[in-house]
Structures are given as structure tokens and as C-alpha cells.
Design a protein that fits this description.
Layout lengths: L4 E7 L3 E6 L4 E6 L2 E4 L4 E5 L1 H4 L9 E4 L2 E2 L2 E2 L2 H15 L8 E7 L5 H13 L5 E5 H8 L10 E6 L4 E7 L2 E8 L3 H16 L1 E2 L2 H10 L11 E8 L5 E7 H25 L2 H10 L1 E4 L8 H9 L3 E3 L6 H9 L10 E3 L1
Parallel strand pairs: 1-9, 9-10, 11-17, 17-18
Antiparallel strand pairs: 1-2, 2-3, 4-5, 4-6, 7-8, 10-19, 11-12, 12-13, 14-15, 15-16
Helix pairs in contact: 2-3, 4-10, 5-6, 5-7, 7-9
């Protein structure tokens, strides 16, 4: 069947990304909905709902329909997908389009069926699933059809998917329930234990973006952090050395290193040897942690680089992969 438009969708833990190469379109919004408990109606979606996070009155609650890379609230996920898809293609009929959605490599058959059901409830009749690291590799511009080993580490908010490719297929893969949100939680835990300071999710994310990282030599500043005292409940400001933030996030990064090592250990010698010249590509929003490529390069002993537009690689690659489904050996399901 011929489709007028091919869209790639990454329904991630913290963000929903939609891409369409033919229209040179890319949209990225927070994967959140705010609902009014009095009326049962949705009062905000996407970035508008993100602005409400931690600031809502008692009758409004902000929901996250995807947790750890998997749909936990199908009805809300379908509502959000339908809203975002209509926003980016107001003049394109659903029947003439196809969506290629990203899924973690560890997703079960039931979890994949749930994702397809979400798309169907959103009004999409033609659905294709692609494993997230394959989509990320295509979005990063890697030639996964070459007879060479290519490796991608896709770090999302809730999951990290690691895959080794060759000749258009996934040779070895690993998926772990660790991502950018775990960096945030590590920072919040450190502040609570050291200063008895409670900070919100958005504050922890801002600290991560501004100062947290995983190379010691990058840390040369002191950060003023505002929050609430755990014992008194009163507002407080504390100063944290960025070296201390290094210790907080490094423990999370080490778990990613272990999983990447396992994938490399299972690979055939020729494919593992290719990585010394081909290197590893980092994608996903969590991959933007300061110093992460150099840290992983030192730990894994192969070159590591951050993909251009890393946050949107999966959605862009899914859109491109929709046209390549017959060339891909595995990692793709068509419904």
C-alpha cells in the first residue's frame, strides 16, 4: 500500500516526538496531561501541562501516560497522541498516513500490542513498530546495512536501549530501566541526604542540565540550589559543589557501562573489533549529560560520540525506517 505521508513517533517516557521527513517536520512535546478532577476533562497537554507540574491546585492532577518507556495509561496516551498528531498534520487525512512508533527492545508482545492499540484509538489505521535503537541509528545517519558492526546507545528518560547492528539487522541488544529520570532522582537523593533539602522534579532536571556530569575535570563551580527543608518545611538555599553532583550521577552511568559491556562481550570478534574504528553513537535526551561521551569512551575503550540532534534521532529514524521496512532484517513489525 502506498501512503501519502510516513510519520515517525517516539512515545517516550518524558517526551513525545513526531517527525515527517517529506514535510521537514519535527515536533517535540512533554508527554504529560493535566486533568480537572471536578469535571474529568483534560485542561492541558504537552509543554503546557509541564508548566503546571508541581504547581497545581488539589483538583488538578498531572498524569504521565508512559512510564519506563512503556504505556501505563493507554487511554490518556491515545488522547495525547491524537492531539499532537492532529496539531502537526491538520490538513492530512489519517487514512493516507502511516505511523511508525518506537518500542524498547525488551518490550513483550502484550506491551507491543498495547502500543498498537494506543495508535488505533488515536485514529491511526496503519501502524508499524520499530525497536528504538534501530530507529535511533537511522535517525543518527548510520549505515546499518553495511557489513560492519555499528553500535547505538539510546538513553531516554526511562530506559536505555543498547544495540549492535550489521547488514540491516540487530545482532545483539540490551534494554535496561535506567534513563535521564534516574539522573534526576540521583540528584534529588543526594540533596536530601546531604542537606535535608527537598527539590522538585523540574529543579533536579535543571541542575542536571546546568551542572551535573560524569567527568571530574569539568567541575569547577559551586551551584546555589533552592528547595524546602525536609524537617522544617521552610524554603532554604544551599550551595553544592559540582564534584559532589559527579558522584551522584556516576553511579547511574556505571550501570549503563555494564550493559554496554555485556552487549560487546556477546558480539562476534569481528563485529566487536569493528567498534574500534566505527565507535559508538549516543542518542536520546539522556545522552546529553555533560562529559558522557568521553566517560563512556574511557570505560568501554572505543570511540564514543554524541549524535547530532540526539533527542530527536528515534522519531526521525522511525519516519525514515518506514520506507525501508523490506530491507530491515529484524526489529520491525507491521500491523
Amino acid at each position: 500500500m502506498m501512503f501519502r505521508w510516513e510519520y515517525g513517533v517516539d512515545l517516550g517516557t518524558s517526551r513525545i516526538s513526531i517527525a515527517c521527513p517529506e514535510k521537514k517536520l519535527f515536533c517535540r512535546q512533554a508527554n504529560l496531561l493535566a486533568m480537572d478532577g471536578r469535571s474529568g476533562r483534560v485542561c492541558a497537554m504537552g509543554d503546557e501541562a509541564l508548566a503546571m507540574l508541581g504547581r497545581t491546585p488539589p483538583w488538578i492532577e498531572v498524569y504521565q501516560p508512559v512510564e519506563k518507556g512503556l504505556v501505563s495509561r493507554p487511554e490518556l496516551a491515545a488522547l495525547l497522541l491524537k492531539s499532537q498528531f492532529r496539531a502537526v498534520r491538520p490538513n492530512n487525512p489519517v487514512a493516507s498516513s502511516r505511523l511508525c512508533l518506537c518500542t524498547p527492545v525488551s518490550a513483550t508482545g502484550v506491551e507491543r500490542d498495547t502500543l498498537v492499540d494506543v495508535a488505533m484509538k488515536a485514529g491511526i489505521k496503519h501502524v508499524m513498530l520499530m525497536e528504538r535503537p534501530m530507529a535511533a541509528a537511522l535517525g543518527a545517519g548510520l549505515d546499518i546495512f553495511a557489513p560492519q558492526g555499528k553500535m547505538v546507545i539510546e538513553i531516554g528518560a526511562g530506559t536505555t536501549d543498547i544495540a549492535l547492528f550489521s547488514l540491516g539487522g540487530i545482532v545483539e541488544a540490551e534494554s535496561i530501566k535506567i534513563g535521564g529520570d534516574d539522573f534526576d532522582q540521583a540528584i534529588r537523593r543526594f540533596l536530601k541526604e546531604k542537606f535535608s533539602l527537598l527539590v522538585g522534579q523540574r529543579t533536579a532536571e535543571a541542575i542536571k542540565i546546568r551542572a551535573a556530569g560524569c567527568l571530574r575535570e569539568d567541575f569547577d563551580e559551586t551551584l546555589r540550589i533552592k528547595g524546602k527543608n525536609l524537617h522544617t518545611g521552610l524554603p532554604e538555599v544551599h550551595e553544592a559543589d559540582t564534584l559532589e553532583l559527579y558522584r551522584a550521577v556516576e553511579a547511574v552511568v556505571r550501570r549503563i557501562v555494564r550493559s554496554a559491556n555485556q552487549v560487546m562481550e556477546r558480539a562476534a570478534p569481528e563485529l566487536a573489533g569493528d567498534l574500534h574504528t566505527q565507535g559508538i553513537v549516543l542518542t536520546g535526551g539522556g545522552a546529553r549529560l555533560r562529559g558522557l561521551p568521553d566517560y563512556l569512551a574511557g570505560a568501554l575503550r572505543v570511540p564514543v560520540r554524541l549524535a547530532e540532534h540526539a533527542s530527536g534521532c528515534a522519531a526521525r529514524g522511525a519516519a525514515r525506517g518506514a520506507a525501508l521496512e523490506k530491507r530491515l532484517e529484524n526489529g520491525v513489525l507491521v500491523f
